[in-house]
Design brief:
This protein is of the alpha/beta class. It folds into three domains: 1-42; 44-253, Rossmann fold; 274-312, no CATH class. Helix content is 56%, strand content 12%. The protein starts with a helix and ends with a helix. The structure holds guanosine-5'-triphosphate and magnesium ion.
């Protein structure tokens, strides 16, 4: 019943209720789940923009600049900064706080940094839940920052409506080392720190990598925009490009595909979270010892998931 009033308050624009709801979802609490089912039919209006790229590329600075531009255009903005690399996350989050400082007092900006996995499901699911929450609560744009190093982060970025990959000039052959996956998810490339030398070279490299790896997009290669996030230069143009791509995706029916992918990701996370990791390990060992066959192991796990569920309710 608490969640009933919580969802009402969220829908009424109560920011404290929103913050509480966000915490419930972030940590995968059961009442968070109820809350989301109450709110789900209000979702589908917000635009989500994923911002990913190598560490230190200026993603947070860019997110802050984009937030400024969106606010100037009268849009409300949710910012979800996802950083699962626990060793560095504290510093990064502290850095984000500083970089987002100018927006902290603004009631039209909601900021969350997430470094830990929620109890239920993974980080991707928690991020998606928070994006849905903001969407239902009537927020116009959700910016999702992830460091594009691991597959998880790339997956999270991929689940946005539009994905901006941020790269920086003057890093020599580094682009070769950037995971192919990061290049693939780009709807737009932002060459940040365009005040530094090497912009032309980077642009050529991106084009080269695109020509090698991205057959589908070779007809419509992801556009490249130069920005100086630190000085707010090129931000409007980048945003315009991202929104134009989104519109094109909408016309092509791609947004429905994005939703399907999102839901699939949630399903996968939720289903997996129903069985403890230890049980999966145990069943795997039994299979490897030929005590049971793999199908029986899966059946055991499903039975276990169902019985745990039964105990909870
Ligand atoms: N020269 C220059 N420096 C920039 C620009 N934008 C950001 N920076 C600097 O780059 C550094 C990293 O910026 P962040 O925004 O924290 O980068 P990030 O990609 O969010 O970093 P992580 O989240 O730690 O991966 C900071 O010192 C910024 O001031 C730019 O346009 N030009
Ligand atoms: Mg950052």
């Amino acid at each position: 019943m608490v969640t009933g009033s919580l969802s009402e308050r969220v829908l009424a624009g109560d920011l404290r209720a929103l913050a509480r709801a966000a915490s419930l979802l972030e940590y995968g609490r059961d009442n968070g789940r109820e809350l989301l089912s109450e709110l789900f039919d209000r979702t589908g209006r917000a635009i989500t923009i994923g911002i990913t790229g190598p560490p230190g590329a200026g993603k947070s600075t860019l997110v802050s600049a984009l937030t400024g531009t969106l606010r100037a255009n009268g849009k409300t903005v949710g910012v979800l900064a996802v950083d699962p690399s626990s060793a560095f996350s504290r510093g990064a989050i502290l850095g984000d706080r500083i970089r987002m400082q100018e927006h902290h007092a603004d009631p039209g900006v909601f900021i969350r940094s997430m470094a830990t996995r929620g109890q239920m499901g993974g980080l991707a699911a928690a991020t998606l839940d928070l994006a849905l929450l903001l969407d239902a609560a009537g927020w116009d744009v959700v910016l999702i920052e992830t460091v594009g190093v691991g597959q998880d982060e790339i997956d999270i970025a991929r689940l946005a409506d539009v994905t901006v990959v941020v790269l920086v000039p003057g890093q020599g052959d580094d682009i070769q080392a950037i995971k192919a996956g990061v290049m693939e998810v780009a709807d737009v490339f932002a060459i940040n720190k365009a005040d530094l030398p090497g912009v032309e070279g980077l642009e050529q490299e991106i084009r080269f990598v695109q020509s090698l790896s991205d057959k589908n997009r070779s007809v419509f290669p992801a556009p490249i925009r130069r920005v100086i996030a630190k000085e707010g230069q090129g931000i409007e143009e980048l945003l315009k490009t991202a929104l134009a791509i989104l519109e094109k995706k909408g016309r092509a029916g791609d947004r429905a595909d994005i939703w399907t992918a999102r839901i699939r990701e949630l399903f996968r996370d939720r289903l997996l979270s129903l069985v403890p990791e230890s049980a999966i390990a145990e069943q795997s060992i039994r299979v490897s010892r030929r005590e049971i066959d793999p199908f029986a192991a899966v059946e055991n796990l499903i039975r276990l998931a169902l019985s745990e569920k039964g105990e909870q309710s």
